[in-house]
Write a structure and sequence with these properties.
This protein has 261 residues and is mostly beta strands. Helix content is 9%, strand content 18%.
Length: 261
């Protein structure tokens, strides 16, 4: 019934303060409580959070709240694909408040999430945005969309957003960037680069594969099934190409010796 519970098993730490700053909470259940707090704690601090989907923001009546988005459409890029970046014109754009500081640390976020399981610098663009992502304040255009490359040339994710790259496609996309990619495709993509890839490469490959032959790596024109959540994928390893060449040479030597004998 709660997305986040705090100190419900007992507030035993000497310092029980809670700061919830620039997060995006999406409640697809449509009911319940976003932040459930143990009774008797000092007021929690809620700044610049998106609470969407329905439900009670917090069980603590004394919570110190400011700059949060609680009703209406935050205008995500693609909520059905779990891409909660903001689109231009979102009511959360430039609508946050200064998160402030504590004696121990500044509360303004300097990082934001990159799918899957990475981070990047979050740069302020004008007034701080509400939510986990700053519109135009990071290199990622999208997170959570795209499902793997198709035949090297174009991925399944289409043209909008990147899973950790720059502009263009999501993970497995065509024109744009994927995870650690450049100005081309995403993971297992085609025209540009995927993870550590070069031109026309998928994961770890160059246009002809990592070992310099068409059989090594996931090269251009090859199909590699991979999910954007870091799932398993079937790829050729560079050593397999050289191993095949070595076995071929050994077979030729044995055949020559047999003929001479």
């Amino acid at each position: 019934g709660a997305m986040m519970s705090y100190a419900k098993e007992g507030a035993s730490n000497p310092d029980s303060r809670l700061f919830v700053i620039n997060n995006t909470f999406v409640n697809d259940r449509k009911s319940g409580t976003f932040i459930n707090v143990q009774d008797g704690l000092s007021p929690i601090l809620l700044r610049n959070n998106i609470f969407t989907g329905g439900g009670t923001v917090t069980s603590q009546a004394s919570a110190d709240k400011a700059g949060n988005f609680e009703t209406g459409d935050p205008m995500f890029v693609n909520a059905s694909a779990f891409d909660y970046h903001l689109t231009a014109g979102s009511p959360c754009e430039n609508a946050g408040v200064d998160p402030g500081t504590t004696p121990e640390l500044a509360l303004t976020p300097d990082l934001q999430y990159v799918h899957p399981a990475k981070t990047e610098a979050r740069a302020a663009v004008g007034v701080i945005d509400i939510g986990a992502f700053e519109l135009g304040g990071g290199s990622a255009g999208a997170g959570g969309s795209g499902t793997g490359g198709a035949s090297g040339a174009a991925g399944a994710a289409g043209a909008a957003g990147a899973a950790g790259g720059g502009a263009g496609a999501g993970t497995g996309g065509s024109a744009g960037a994927g995870v650690d990619g450049g100005a081309g495709a995403g993971v297992d993509g085609g025209a540009g680069a995927g993870i550590d890839g070069g031109a026309g490469a998928g994961t770890g490959g160059s246009a002809a594969g990592a070992a310099g032959s068409a059989d090594a790596g996931t090269g251009a024109g090859e199909t590699d099934e991979s999910s954007d959540d870091g799932g398993c994928s079937m790829t050729h390893k560079p050593g397999q190409a050289w191993g095949a060449l070595g076995l071929g040479a050994l077979a030729m030597m044995l055949l020559a010796r047999r003929r001479r004998g």
